[in-house]
Automatic annotation (TrEMBL):
Classification via Pfam families: CENP-B_N, HTH_Tnp_Tc5
Record-given protein name: Jerky protein homolog-like
One Gene Ontology CC term in the entry: nucleus
Keyword DNA-binding attributed: yes
Family matches, as PROSITE patterns: HTH_CENPB, HTH_PSQ
Length: 271
């Protein structure tokens, strides 16, 4: 009885060689023996011939095809292209390139391409929820607080509030009463721009009635994407110079910068 065949993972170059040999008249059985794979694998390669050739033709390096075994695309294809272009330029200039230098340049391209914003968008709400439960150990699934965001009932809200300090006595009746408030009632006094300014200046409504001249409002200032982007760049430079600034502060500004860059790209592409 023959032993179990060792699993062989072919490189992209191996698959291209098999495709060529099949086109030259080679048999699946013969190629399976040569490469130590099953005949089913050879048939799958023949079936996916166009996909393999297309992937190989899009590669910038034949040496990578001899090492790469999967056609799974990178999560950051734009970053890969930018890094490859930069790396080729450095090699052409004769500049030494080390691992730390590549890592620093990759970080630069990552933020320059707005990929930090995309990374945030990949974070699922359930991941954030679990993170908060680790930060606040009193809110745990075993306490019955693990609810789906699409299936939150009045009872579920009441249960959550009852685990919050100061709201232990909240009942479902209280929640229902709050929800029954007239939706057209904003719950606060609606003021005009002039009234907001007068109130901020400490003027009463009675004294404002005697004023003959209306306060001239300053027109809204329009800030374009370029100006907003420059503001975030300056703020990031400032934070980098401050030794006591923590990483989350810089990450918030970087996320804002990435969002502005994406808006700028969308505006430019629509023009």
């Amino acid at each position: 009885m023959s032993g179990k065949r060792k699993r062989v993972v072919l490189t992209i170059k191996d698959k291209l060689d098999i495709i060529k040999k099949l086109e030259d008249g080679g048999s699946s059985k013969q190629l399976a023996v040569i490469y130590g794979i099953g005949e089913t694998t050879v048939r799958d390669i023949r079936k996916n011939k166009e996909k393999i050739i297309t992937y190989a033709s899009s590669s910038d390096s034949t040496s990578l095809l001899a090492k790469r075994k999967s056609m799974k695309p990178s999560m950051y294809e734009e970053l890969d292209r930018a890094m490859l272009e930069w790396f080729n330029q450095q090699r052409a200039k004769g500049n030494p390139v080390s691992g730390p230098i590549c890592a620093k340049r990759a970080e630069f391209f990552f933020y320059a391409l707005g990929m930090d914003a995309m990374a945030w968008n990949l974070v699922k709400p359930v991941t954030i929820s679990r993170a908060w439960k680790k930060i606040l150990p009193t809110i745990e699934e075993k306490e019955g607080l693990d609810f789906d965001e699409e299936d939150i009932s009045v009872a579920a809200v009441a249960t959550i509030l009852q685990h919050t300090k100061g709201l232990e006595n909240v009942t479902t009746e209280n929640i229902e009463k709050w929800l029954e408030v007239d939706s057209t009632e904003p719950g606060y006094e609606v003021l005009s721009d002039s009234e907001i300014i007068r109130r901020a200046q400490g003027q009463t409504d009675e004294s404002s009635e005697n004023e003959e001249e209306e306060i001239e409002l300053i027109p809204e200032r329009h800030v374009n994407h370029a100006a907003a982007l420059q503001w975030t760049e300056n703020l990031l430079d400032y934070l980098e110079q401050q030794g006591d600034m923590i990483l989350p502060d810089r990450l918030v500004i970087r996320k804002l910068r990435a969002t502005i860059r994406n808006k700028q790209k969308m505006t430019n592409s629509s023009q």
